[in-house]
Amino acid sequence: MKKNTLFLLICILSIIIILEAIWSVNFISDANAKNQINSLVENLLKTEIQPLPQDKPSLSLETEENNISLWQNTTVTVWAVPDNEPIQALDVIVNFDNNILQATGFTPLVELPGAEYWFNQTGSAFNNEEGKISFGLILPTETISEPTAIAEIYFTALNIGTAKLIFDFEPQKTIDTNVILKNKTFDSLFEVNNLDIIIQNSAQ
What we know:
19% of the residues lie in helices and 38% in strands. The model has no long low-confidence stretch (mean pLDDT 83). The chain is of the alpha+beta class. The protein has helices spanning 3-24, 31-46, and strands at residues 58-62, 67-69, 73-81, 87-96, 101-108, 116-118, 126-127, 132-138, 148-157, 161-167, 178-181, 191-193, 195-200.
């Protein structure tokens, strides 16, 4: 049971117990007063308990060209989309098919005061041997409160086929892609949008 629901039920029960005690010692003798109090209690019991709104921040991968030709370069943009609360920090891990795509560059895009990107031990956001993009972003002062492009990743097409770029993501898992909202300490990432890039002999 949620804390707000439990608290409301405890309050209602406390009111009923107090009223019963008062009635038992005849402190309330007026019938109209009793009816008014009974009505108040009934209304409290009928009150619909509304759940707290759930934050639904998301991360997306987007490109202007989903169909490219062999050896063509393409740019993939990582978007962060907050919901009710702004984003304070995030970790991004994206797996890609390194038989079809080769990562060639990375550009951070968030320039808010105090914004700091961090990378793995290699100091790079991409690892072509593992087919992995990995980086983090911390925003200690100003936060992301609207849909924001946070990074661009550059790829070259090595082979023909469909290259899948997929976030490493499971809800509430802490060692994968995640989002931390302002004044929160847990993963709040609700959904991700992955990306397919089709490589052909010539662009269609």
